[in-house]
């Protein structure tokens, strides 16, 4: 049977078409692979420099690097020191990068100014390195950033005003550096939950712009050189859980502190505070309160008895003129009570209600005797009664506190005779 000529011609044309298409696809695929390879080499420059790898190494193969299907780097996370711990001069081109985590990498050098070109970055952590210089203003270009951590470096100068452009920022950690000022633009960061600026060289008063960040839950400005009164605007931060203003030169606490009813941790120690407002008793969710190392010379407000969730109370190193209020006996969840060197002449009998106490320190006061109720504090591990004015025999009330590990009675006027009942203190290691 003879095949018609038109069918033969049609078949030949179809074969040529298919062959041509396959050749074309092969060329396109080769070009794609070449382009992809070029992208990988370009985007891996920064990483390969830190890793000490060849320039052509495909960093997407590294366990600490994540790339998408097209070979673009999306995440860099190093958990320890890198082979070449010198910050490169440039981050290079990484347009798809969302996470850059180089903490504890022991990096030296400064933050490259082209950090602002990492447009998709959401998470930036350069903490616990040895970076120097200033925070580049270009960081304000990272409009998608929600997490910024530069703590524990040697960064200096002012925080750039451009940081106020980071409208999506929720976590900002700049603590433990050498920064000298906070820009007013920080008040633009209305989504902030965490603001840590402690252990810098900040001076002046607490910026009022911070007091408009109503979503703040954790604020740390401790260990700076901030002075003046704590602003009344602190009462605007109604979502605060933790407030650390210790180790500054602050002079007074406003009554508005009582509006922070969600507060759990309040540290105002080592300042120049002279009084405690009664509104402190409105902080009914408080777990830890530290007002030690101030010059408080008034009374401890009786409203302190409202803080029934307190587990730690430190009022040591003050100069109280009045006795401790009996209401302290309402703090039945208290585990740690520090009242050392505070000009106290007595302890209230109600202290015996604090049966969860494990540490009680009243060293360095003018106490002549201890209340009988102290014998009920059977969970005590440490009892510091040294440098007071107690006389006579060792108080019998403490000789049945069998969980005591440390008992300090030094520098009193007690009899040197040691009662046989001291043997009841079977866990005692330090006397």
Automatic annotation (TrEMBL):
It is a single-pass membrane protein. Pfam families: LRR_1, LRR_14, LRR_8. GO terms for molecular function: receptor serine/threonine kinase binding. Residues 137-245, 326-431 form the Disease resistance R13L4/SHOC-2-like LRR domain. The keyword Manganese does not apply. GO terms for cellular component: plasma membrane. Keywords: Cell membrane, Leucine-rich repeat, Membrane, Repeat, Signal. This is RNI-like protein. It comes from Piromyces finnis. The lineage of its organism: Eukaryota, Fungi, Fungi incertae sedis, Chytridiomycota, Chytridiomycota incertae sedis.
